[in-house]
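Input.
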Amino acid sequence: MLEKAQRLGDKLPEQIAGVVKASCLASENRQLFDQAAQLLGSQRRFDDSIAFFKRALDKDPNAINSRLGLVITLRFARRLKDAKPHVRWLLDIIPEERYIHPIALHVGKTLNDQPLIDEALSLIEKHAPNELEAAKQFLKSPAR
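Output.
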């Protein structure tokens, strides 16, 4: 059912979304929780998506992709305060991953969290120095 729902594209009917949610919950399978969360997030069903990512993390707190998916969904849902502890966790576990740095900058800037901004800039300087100037320009730009 999950695969069929993924092929439906942008407009997932409520009935199918309900079947996907129930089936994936019944499975108790972390990977299916992730896939359901991704599908629901792509449908802008953020609360459902966040709940599935959290269930995945309950199963495996060290699941990097689940945590990253949760952070991305929380950003789209404009819940950056909720994303912050997960961003910090990702920075601690995989500080060299360049895709985490701009997320950390965005969260830090929006929440006016200077220590998070400083940490992200330090990691950019260490792991992606060619992106440092763009990061500094982002911090100078007006908030949206």
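The chain has nine helices and no strands.
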